[in-house]
Amino acid sequence: MGRMHADEHAIDTTLVRRLVRGQFPRWADLPVTPLASGGTVNAVYHLGDDLTVRLPLTSGGASDITKERRALGALGELPVAVPDVVAVGEPAEDYPWPWAVHGWLDGTPAREGRDAPARDLAEFVRALRAHPADGPPTRRGKPLADVDTATRRAIEELRGTDEPFDAEAALAAWTEAFDAPPWTGPPCRLHGDLMPGNLLLRDGRLSGVLDWATAGVGDPAIDLIPAWNLLTADTRPAFRDAVGDDDATWARGRGRALSMAVIQLPYYRHTNPVISANARYVLTELGVLTRSR
């Protein structure tokens, strides 16, 4: 992993130990181990056997600590485990933002193109949507118009790279999704970031879902993105059948997957191999990248 953001704060094991020791002395003697992660917002460390420490990398991610705590506190029963927020730390030790300690969830992060429980994913999405959802759409629950400019700009940026990318096909796919009928139903409860690394598997089943900072309400299409960032052409139909969405919602979900991938790839292609590989996978599944790299 390279430095991903120009304003990224330097975080290492020594800093995490100092923060924990200073604010939560009951955990001062627990081992601190960095976790390999494709995450772009937080540095994550394993604390002892049962805890994780999450520290925002930039000021833009600092507000996510409060958002995630609120989102997790509002959840009712789900068919999979979600993290418990065990504690929230304060700025200290030259670290300028709040940080969080979560309960550890066992499981292996999902990987794109591997066997994945399509029907378990659909069950989770349906169960989350069944939760009460009030208020205006949150950022990832808004119409595709909200990301139209950024998506088109990213397509043009990718056109100028050495990626085997078909910009005209991408524009056509984006236009098709953009022109799909908008969501007119009541707001749905959303996770908003169902990337493979946020989906934990045990014994071939979906066992947990991480990273709730983008959770909110709005258009349910955003939570269809695992159809393209995780599943294959063979397993995608089972997910679509089980989740039960209409053609327009499916089209908007495909547009969301495309938008995220074309924005991620030029930004992370030299600094985050996990995210850039996943973006290439999405674009290959959508037929706008001619081969994986």
Commentary on this structure:
The protein is of the alpha+beta class. It folds into two domains: 13-105, 2-Layer Sandwich (Phosphorylase Kinase, domain 1); 118-285, Aminoglycoside phosphotransferase (APH), C-terminal lobe (Aminoglycoside 3'-phosphotransferase, Chain: A, domain 2). The chain is 37% helix and 14% strand. The chain contains ten helices and ten strands. The strands form three sheets. Strands 1-2-3-5-4 form a five-stranded antiparallel sheet, with helices on both faces. A three-stranded antiparallel sheet has the order 6-8-9, with no helix packed on it. Strands 7-10 form a two-stranded antiparallel ribbon. β1 (32-34) and β2 form a beta hairpin. α4 (118-129) runs parallel beside α8 (236-243), α5 (148-159) runs antiparallel to α6 and α6 crosses α9. The longest helix has 22 residues, at 247-268. The radius of gyration is 19 Å and the shape is globular. The model has no long low-confidence stretch (mean pLDDT 93).
Q: Indicate the structural class.
A: alpha+beta
Number of helices: 10
**Average pLDDT over all residues:** 93
Strand order of the biggest β-sheet: 1-2-3-5-4
CATH architecture field of the largest domain: Alpha-Beta Complex
Distance between termini? 17 Å
Give the strand content: 5-15%
Shape field: globular
Largest sheet: 5 strands, antiparallel
Rg on CA atoms, Å: 19 Å
Overall helicity = 25-40%
Unreliable residue stretches: none
Number-wise, the strands total 10
Tell me, what is the CATH class of the largest domain? Alpha Beta
CATH fold-level assignment of the largest domain: Aminoglycoside 3'-phosphotransferase, Chain: A, domain 2
**What's the CATH H-level superfamily name of the largest domain?**
Aminoglycoside phosphotransferase (APH), C-terminal lobe
Number of domains as seen in the coordinates = 2
Order of helices and strands: HEEEHHEEEHHHEEEEHHHH
